[in-house]
Amino acid sequence: QVQLVESGGGLVQAGGSLRLSCAASGRTFNMYAIGWFRQAPGKDREFVAAISRSGGRTYYADSVKARFAISRDNARNTVYLQMNSLKPEDTARYYCAADVGKKDATTYYYGAFSFGSWGQGTQVTVSS
User: Fold this and answer.
1) Which of 15, 26, 42, 80 is the most buried (most CB within 10 A)?
2) Which band of pLDDT confidence, cut at 50, 70 and 90, is reported for residue 105?
């Protein structure tokens, strides 16, 4: 099963930018759609963005559309989340997950995707 590691989080002022990376192990990375999610303290985990296996299709939450961009480099086994015009309400721990099809208590369903195999997350803090 694919293993994912997030990086790139940090502290940024409102209006600033960050680029998160989700690096995957294994040679089957391009078999999986990948999603980004976030969870703020006291709130449920929420969908942020997703990208298809080839990168040809992308999906965004309304709250980040036009500010965030997801992309992938299958040769580098990495998915990126470019975050621009950051707002304090974007503050959260950001996780990536793969559409591995496994259904258990940790699965997040979005459309036809079943995201699991979670990374450990990376913290994003946006100051006002």
Assistant:
1) 80
2) confident
How many angstroms separate the Cα of 6 from the Cα of each of 10, 42, 66, 112? 12, 21, 22, 24
Closest CA to 72 of 85, 63, 81: 81
DSSP reduced 3-state for 120: coil
Res 14 pLDDT > 90: yes
Structure confidence by residue, pLDDT tens digits, 33-92: 999 999 999 999 999 999 999 999 999 999 999 999 999 999 999 999 999 999 999 999
Q: Read out DSSP for 58-97? A: EEE-TTTTTTEEEEEEGGGTEEEEEE-S--GGG-EEEEEE
Type of residue found at 75? A
Contact 43, 52 (CB under 8 A): no
In angstroms, rounded to a whole number, what is the distance separating the alpha carbons of residues 85 and 67? 6
CB-based contact 97:115 (threshold 8 Å): yes
